[in-house]
Design goal:
mainly alpha; Four Helix Bundle (Hemerythrin (Met), subunit A)
Length: 168
């Protein structure tokens, strides 16, 4: 995934705007990880948390996989790092590598993009079993933007704690 971040347009269709903001936040997460070793990426925030930059990348791979492949596309695929469906497992990146985490994340992002582009409209729906409700692609894209934005805030603090870099 490129770490060249393009600002979302100021005027665009709803779908173009959602797509651009989602990609903006995806690239932001990648930028927060640029130039760091595997050891730096695995550095945890503070006990008892296992949160790390690499853990955030792994978590977002699970989020992309769940919302686009499982919910919108109706695929029966397990989570990547947890057979029990526990999203928190991805946060613990002990023993994980940049290559492993980023390959999984980039694969899921590309599949998410294909699913979104193939959808006829933002009104396409899928079933979210945790909520027991159908949801639209529009909601999924908004949810992912929210999820990335929240976790990119965490990534700000994690990166600052590693090497003092802020404001990326």
């Amino acid at each position: 995934m490129t770490t060249e971040r393009i600002s979302p347009p100021l005027i665009a269709s709803e779908r173009e705007m959602l797509r651009a903001f989602l990609d903006y936040h995806r690239v932001t997460l990648a930028m927060k990880c640029d130039g760091l070793s595997d050891e730096d990426l695995r550095r945890q925030s503070m006990p008892p948390s296992t949160l790390s930059l690499l853990g955030l990348v792994r978590h977002m791979a699970e989020v992309e996989r769940t919302w686009f492949r499982r919910v919108i596309n109706g695929e029966d695929v397990p989570l990547i790092w947890s057979e029990e469906g526990d999203y928190q497992v991805a946060y613990d990146a002990t023993g994980s590598t940049r290559l492993e985490a980023f390959d999984a994340w980039q694969t899921e992002v590309e599949l998410s993009r294909r699913i979104e582009k193939a959808a006829e409209s933002l009104d396409v729906t899928g079933h979210q079993p945790r909520w027991g409700a159908d949801v639209s692609l529009r909601l999924v894209m908004l949810h992912l933007i929210h999820e990335y934005a929240r976790h990119n805030g965490h990534a700000d603090f994690l990166r600052e704690g590693i090497d003092g870099t802020v404001g990326v």
